[in-house]
Structures
1.
Amino acid sequence: MSPRRGFRHPGSFGSSLPERGLLLLVLIVLLQGSLLPFGAASSPDVGHRDEADVHAEAEEKHNFTKKPFPVLSFEYKHIQVPFEISLWVLLASLMKLGFHLIPRLPGIVPESCLLILVGLLVGGLIKLAGQKVPPVLDSNLFFFCLLPPIILDAGYFLPIRPFMENLGTILMFAVVGTLWNAFFIGGLLYAVCQIQPNNPSDLHSLELLPCLLFGSIISAVDPVAVLAVFEEIHINELLHILVFGESLLNDAVTVVLYHLFEEYSGVGSVTVIDGVLGVISFFVVALGGVLVGAIYGILAAFTSRFTSHTRVIEPLFVFVYSYMAYLSAEMFHLSGIMALIACGAVMRPYVEANISHKSHTTIKYFLKMWSSVSETLIFIFLGVATVDGQHNWNWTFVTVTVVLCLVARVIGVVGLTYVINKFRIVKLTTKDQFIVAYGGLRGAIAFSLGFLLDKRHFPLRNMFLTAIIIVIFFTVFVQGMTIKPLVDLLAVKKKQEAKRSINEEIHTQFLDHLLTGIEDICGHYGHHHWKDKLNRFNKKYVKKCLIAGERSKEPQLIAFYHKLEMKHAIELVESGGGAKLSSAIPSTVSMQNIQPKKPAPAKPEDRVLPKLSKSREEEIRKILRSNLQKTRQRLRSYNRHTLLADPYEDNFGEFLLKKQKMMALDKKIQDMNNYLTVPAAPPDSPTLCRARLASGRETDFNPTRQQKADTVGPDPQAYSMKPALDSVPTIQVDLASPQSPDSVNILDEFQRSEQAAAAEEGEDDGGLMMKAPTRPHERCNAGEMDAGTREKLSRCLSDPGPHAEDEDEDEPFLP
Amino acid sequence: QQQQQQQQRRHYEELAHKSGFSTEQIKNLHKRFRQLSGNKETISRANLDSIPALANNPIKKQIIDAFFDKRNQRQDDEVGSLEEIGLEQFLMVMSHFRPPAHKSGEEERQAARRQKLRFLFNMHDTDGDGIITLVEYRKELLSKSGAIGHQAAKAIADAAMLEVASTNAPHMAPDDFYEGITFEHFQQILKGLEMESRMHIRFLDVDTTTMRCGKATS
């Protein structure tokens, strides 16, 4: 958010005011809307009116013939439930929207705090209107609808490598740390309750087991709260995965402790055998959850192997299988969270290899959308539920709980780190420990668990709930708001945003092999060895079963390279439409600079004609298609079920999507500069342009190109976009690599199809303008891109001659 | 007998001083050394070549070469390769994979990082002229070409080289020639990888089986 505010200069401040006004208006309307339905739903005379309705209906039936047919009727009850759900979702989304529209605010207050405040406000308004607050944070709703999307999002995009590398530490914090917290808080709380002599009776009546139960509820770090806060502070990967991993994996401990204590607090005593059973149950719950998740994950991967003909429903499999994994785990009281995490993490590599690029994007967006709406709703509901709850405020209990939570967390982290550091290579510093301890936020899971408690067994349930809410508020507000300044103050290492370069990928893999080899020479089998074994097994058997076709044999490096290429292609397409991209001007280095100049006698094949590699070919094909599709897509009739069967339509959709992403792209230009690993140069320096052009070394002059350039040239807008074109040289990585004779055919084919495309486009000019009048400059972009492609092709075709500079002067359209 | 033991221990201490390993680690490594060499004083390429676990490693040849590379012996300026190595040389090569020291200052970290990167660099720079050329880079990738296609490997090497060139020398005249990756550029491109903490393996202190905290492999 902050970079975005950076772009917004003071002048535009005024323009955002009406937006906000509008938003406010919508909100007020919405609030009224959401109040009214509740009024209608819960007013005491509802039943009465119902009866009256029934009577009326009955009467209606009697004199059926007399009544005229109702042209317009009103029946709110019919749609009440879905309507109210939609209203809540709308409220959440609008709040999120509004939060980011207000300048400077996101920098100070975390979103979660603000959302809780909104929830409080909404709850208060509902109460003020004299209505009953709906039980929004109902446990079923929470655990079956709101939580899974967030966890799936976290599991599917879990950074496996750092997670696995730090698994020991994470497990230590998650299991031992949570146990310690639960027993420390529960035990001391019980002691405090017993100590005070002049205490009112209700605290004295508290027994040990409810205290421990309360401790186990309150001690678990909450993934939702952690995600919400940590995503905004951009902390380094290690700390993020430590805290976040802990919050995910402690679910198993919480589940077991919760069920154990809930079971026995009715009985009142726990024997040693129960304790042993509890330990066994922990392993069953945790490993069982992982197992269930893994099974569903493999099923999902296997299913996705066969979806190549029905691409539209591909994303659905991911969601449904994951949800079923969650439900199946919950059915056996296993850890649903761990099942979801395992399911997402297991299926991801295989599913990604099987599904189309677009389905992948869909999955990504859907997960992000669901999880962010869920998160927003959870925080709002937390606020609403606070207003709604019957509170039993007990100063001693609340204060002691908050203090104990803090103390237990600090002692736990420091003590455990002391042990862990003996085994770690990269030690956790004091700063790291502080952030880990301070980042232990509590959240809605604790509240929902507290909400589940049975009032008959726990007479002090309301007091528990109050204390839980206070702890949540304390961690989310105080810790959540201060953690960002503290991170800055302590100069904790931040996350590097830079994308991975090819070289880094190459050397990472090289290092993996090297370390495995050295371990083998040393003769002991460390985790590199086992990782290698696992990889080998995966490659040899699992991938063959789960991944369709050729891609199962594709090594990781190639996959990475393809991803990179895909990105390049997309960037190339997008750069056609984005004048802003001109700032991402690449360097003047091209393939010629790194190729050996003269054919070395030892390696004569280095100096043969350039060729298009398969991937390059694919890229060019893509570009051509995205130009062609403009004319083709009109001929196609819309078919809901074969959305992806048609490559042209497919690309058209993609093109539109890219258009929408342009806005986001502008923000990411900085990233992209990194990614292209090229410093930006001033866009219009003639010498630079010349040099760049020279680096292309066109000796072959392409007539179609000139023609095209002439038609495009006069258009001022297209002309100003020229710099964008220059991103071509960096992307052309392997044009100059040696070729085999058959590639000439491909080139010719391209040439032809391209000319055809140009011709077709020329014919269709008017029609296209009529079809999409709202996007006048998209056409120019297409033209631009065409020119870009042509330039590329001409470069491929040309044999780089020795006198490139001389030819420059002939170019009519470049300075 | 006792004198021999004494001598052995002194020998170990000397080695420990040179390589930075502890004497226990050296004892373990020596045991492995004897096992590999068949109780001889030196190890030859054939000895390492016959390690069964290494058979599947795609960069097996480079790894073995690294052991016989004079540049990795920490006696600078010597290029070339040895035919056989003794325990000391073996330990010297191994010492590149020591984990970083417990409490190390910024300078020590930089030094460790430089030294580790130098080891990697030497593995790529096969002819020892201080520059990784495109040909060498391609060859390194092609060594894995059992898995990667020949063409793809080339394309990737080219792309990677171009990336290095444009990072380190963004403005080149068309006639300039980027000869290859120098060590400085090599350091530059791998800046983000935190080599000093990543490039290490666990050397055993005690002779018993490994004692690691539960690392599941799911």
2.
Amino acid sequence: MLCAVSAPTTCITFPRSPLRKLGPRRVTVSAVAVEPDGVASKVEYTPWLIAGLGNPGNKYHGTRHNVGFEMIDRISEEEGIVLNTIQSKTLFGIGCIGEVPVLLAKPQTYMNFSGESVGSLAAYYQVPLRHILLVYDEMSLPNGVLRLQPKGGHGYHNGVKSVMEHLDGRREFPRFCIGIGNPPGTMDMKAYLLQKFSLIERKQVDAALEQGVDAVRTLILNGFNSKVNRFNLGQKYKYHKV
Amino acid sequence: MAVVAKLHLFSNLPSNPPPQPQPTPQSHRPPKPPIPIPKYPPPKPKKPPTPPNPAFKTHHNRSKYYKPVKQGVLASDDGRTILIGDSGVSYQLPGAPFEFQFSYSETPKVKPLAIREPAFLPFAPPTMNRPWTGKAPMKKAKRNVRLFGSGEEESDGVRRMEMRGGYEVKELFGGELRPRNEVLGRPLSKAEARELIKPYLSSNRQVNLGRDGLTHNMLELIHTHWRREPICKVRSLGVPTVDMNNVCRCLEEKTGGKIIFRVGGIAYLFRGRNYDPRNRPRYPVMLWKPATPVYPKLIQEAPEGLTKAEADVFREKGKKLLPICKLAKNGVYATLVRDVRSAFEECAIVKINCTGMHASDYKKIGAKLKELVPCVLLSFDDEQILMWRGHDWKSMYKRSPKAPSPVHDTTANGMNRSGMHMIMFNKGSEVARNVLDAHYNELLNCFMYLLYINFAQTILADLKKAFYMIILTN
């Protein structure tokens, strides 16, 4: 039975500007999300920090290494979280997806030093390690293929290496890898990463970003479950269709 | 000076000067050898090759022998039978603990249609059992053995004489097989297993399992390894790795050992605590590889459930399809079945790239996939395996859609979440629990929000300070 409750004060509004004060306490009633197959999944309300890795500045806008930034921009558009603050060298916005508070961050240090910003943000807001989602580009996946992992290695990505360093060498934080494919032939890896996408690749990546926002929503609301596995498998074989 | 040759000043000397020694090393003859050069016998004329013994002629190498067979006994010779049963072509010898086959893990479950050579048992005949004496057979003079007994006809019309003090033919299979539990003994603890395996992890002293899987002669080989070490490392590469579980099961059953560690294509077989190398089963060794029988064709023009036209449409589509993976020639394909199953979730046809492999290999892989992932093979051209998932394919997952619809209403243009909420009630208690959660949620939100506010206020304070400084200085 569906019962719509319109509660004008169901959740604390996260204000656009920092000057508005906290209003009187209002009671919220949250729900257990019941899926069509009858399995109830508990929503975990601990805040998430979603950090996208990239290089700041117009010069690096739209390059392969900056897909993390593009993903964060997409998420902020869809969820209505504005990135309007600067804290610990990141461009930063606070909001919520469903009932779960979420911090979106785009470190404005160059890629090799992203760890300083992400680490100090996580420490300030006391986000647990398992709720830091790192969004970055992955050369071992074909172009446009996404993958959500609960933990992993750095895959020779300097940004992830620096984040791991600043989180005391811990690797057990979830990652959202966006595939960009291997450099062709004997092309220099750094040149490949700082190149912009070709037309076909651009289209593939745009489609992937859309699917990705949905996936991030599912992850935050339900955690790592079989849906995430299905998402990963679907992404792995999405170009093997006729 | 003037020529003085005509002046007979030195008339005692000969008129012609002695001939100068000619320094021509090219036509210089070598010095004579101190002893005469030995004469070697002339090279033997090459004999024409003797025609090979017809006993060694195998029929299945490009022969036209083709004999259709049905299930049941093919040939039998007082206890030694060849039969086609549930486990394909198998050989039964009297006293053997189980039916012998050429390959225990790679015999397909499909029934064979015909055989390619006359049905012979590939083992040594039983009458040749002169025991091993370590010496050559005796010369003819010594070979005549005294025979005892009268040479008269007995009651059944046969004349019998016997050799006394002769050879005793030992029992072929060493008597009764010891029960498996007895040989294995107490199960190994994890620490013991780890200790046992450690020295063999990096060594390459192993039994290699190739495209024929677990063959009969490999059983003898594993026992010879066990004679020396308690662990036998079995490494499989290529076709058998598609179904590692089956290989491991066959290994454990036929050898009587236990697999204590298994990774990828490698299995470590432990012989058992109470293994006795002197009291082990002795199997007769297969002397040649029997010809594989003829099995029904893997690919049909119109496979089950499809017309020829539909099948051709699939094959056309398959030409444009991306292969899901590339298989190396002797690789480990342990995850192949799982990958193919998950690929079938996305698309009805799946292609695998097998360039560089032998044709018989990728056809065998196709046959195995047909059995394990149930699927229909469409084509093998261009060294790719093309498969269709079949009409009665069921997804691994329940009916729920792939990307679940989110609980709340999402508006694309960034409206704030604190609007409408859709709620589904389960039970009263759940609602009560959720209210508690909501309070916790609130607290957390407040806490984080307080942090944010704190930070924002510090920034504001700095800004204010800077502003006042500017005003004061101006």
